[in-house]
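worker-03 picked up job from queue 'complexes'. Input manifest follows; two sequence lines, order preserved.
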Amino acid sequence: MSDTYFEILRPGINSSIQDKGRNHLYHIGITISGAMDQRIFALSNALVSNDLNEGVIEFAYQGPLLKLKNGSINFVITGNVIFNILRKNSVIEEGKCFQNYLLEHEDQIDIITAKNSVFGYLAVEGGFQINKVWDSYSVNTKAKVGPNNGEKFSSGEKIYIKKSKVKNFINKKINYEKSLDKNIKIIKGTNFDYFSEEAKNKFFKEEFLVTNLSDRMGMRLEGPKLNNIVNTNIKSEGLVKGVVQVPADGNPIILFSDHGSIGGYPKIAVVITADHDMTAQLIPGSKIKFKEVNLDEAEELFKSYLNETKNYIEQIK
Amino acid sequence: MIKNISNLGDAAIYCDFGTEVNEKINLKVISYFNYLKKLVKENKIEGITNLTPSYNKLIISFDLSITNFKKITKILETLKVINNNQQDSKNIKIPLCSDEEFALDLISLSKKLKISADEIMDLYLNREYFCYMTGFIAGMPFLGDIHEKIRFDRLQTPRIKVPKGSIGITEQFCNIYTFESPGGWNIIGNTPLKIFDKLNLNNPSLIKPGDKASFYKISKQEYLNWNE
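worker-03 finished. Artifact:
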């Protein structure tokens, strides 16, 4: 067992271990969890030569302050994040995202804030010394599922790192350009026709505001009230990431990684998979619009999404 | 068996078995679910990441980088699923304490229904329930149907915290809160039995869709001395 670890001096607002997610357990009420921004999660692993599904630290808004104890590590931060590296000789280096760094005993990483975005990722070469639960590293703090007893990180905790010494450090980087589209593409949901003609029109024509009531479970929006003319409840049924459900109050909620496995609110739409990452990164106060696409278009857009990810990974060589 | 198949977004299939809620339709959903689960386990269908059965729907989630809606629906069309899953269903006996400390809504429910608390509990206890589905929170079983006389709507304002082990009723259903959670069902008692055990990695849920469950009364003393 390695003796190299991060000591958590400040945990940040919502820092937890995530990977791609946990499958095959919806039917007993355990949701998928996993990284909110799947692309930059995968890129963080690629930049430190890990398997793309290795567990990394996800943080939201303000990230953690970590001190490395013993050994040396190769790490990267992905996202649109301001962070500093505090070297043990008191030199402060301004960190750049999407580029790897060598960190040594007693050096610190101070993840100050995400800029115009919510989530960022910290990956270390070789990964963290953590056991998978139900075949995944992902933590679901609401359901208390996952490693660390399903809890987010807290002050004073130690996060052990598998690889205790970097032997051959090679600089790697990606020129990452984040898209700033405020149009969220959706496919009509299974209860689209529960809504009035006026509500359907407003859903596509008017803007919706991302509210503060947004987290890993979902994002609550405010805008024109979406009037349901059939029934504001349905018999509970399965949910998936990206579902836009509308409770009786008429305000839509977009479901994210830690959503409940089943629910009884009508589904007006589902955000296409290619737009999940971008949607999850929208900060409260953002204004968005919904744009309809069909299934074929959604599948094409997802192919382009995969290609872009692949191109980023190829930059690393 | 499935009345209609459609897409739920670009990475899930929505299998509609009907609109009614009853054991017959639900058993069709469960048969289909068990059949597909086995195929997925044996790697006979690529890319399926989750199967979510509910009262009368089954949602099949898949990894869009591996497969798509057309490929899976094509496979579904060739399947011959037999409605046959009762041989391995269990009958689970669940202890229930309806001491006033636990039965948070029993008195108010008795007033709303205009029948005594004892009668509500008699009607509730002398009955076998069917598990339609599990979910919402890990392992929570949705059971039914409760006696017509004790059916009532959800609470007007849901509780922010329903204690773990609480047994709630609403409409024709009852459930057990496997964790402390928000919730709006009428709470008539609490069970000390572990319904969901996350340390039991292979078999965490005591009650599964298709199982039967019934409740028996225990005293507060028995509740407090409960030892699994």
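worker-03 released lock.
Chain A touches chain B at residues 23-30, 32, 133-134, 143-145, 187, 189-190, 235-240, 242-243, 260-263, 267, 270-273, 295, 298-299, 302, 306 (CB under 8 Å).
Chain A has four helices and 20 strands.
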